[in-house]
Predict the 3D structure of the following.
Amino acid sequence: QVNLVESGGGLVQAGGSLRLSCAASGFTVSTYRMSWYRQAPGKERELVAFITSVGDSTNYAESVKGRFTISRDNAKNTVHLEMNSLKPEDTAVYYCKTNYRNYWGQGTQVTVSS
């Protein structure tokens, strides 16, 4: 059974940092592309970052480049999203997604106050 559980969200002031985690079960994160998406109120879900299964290449939305870092911990079968220099416009529900059958996590709320 595939399961993705996000954690690490919360309320932070602008300029602060958070580290999101996505714990996976039912498949191996190292063998599939893993992505983080976000959805702000009234907006469509957007891709934030992904990490590939081959070569661990990463890609980021322009709005988060230089501030966010996606990484993978194969030993813990977990994917992380390190978020620094947070801005109020980063406020959203953040979702983890795998290319393995396109499973999604339930999301974790990130709120950045000005």
About this structure: The chain has no helices and ten strands.
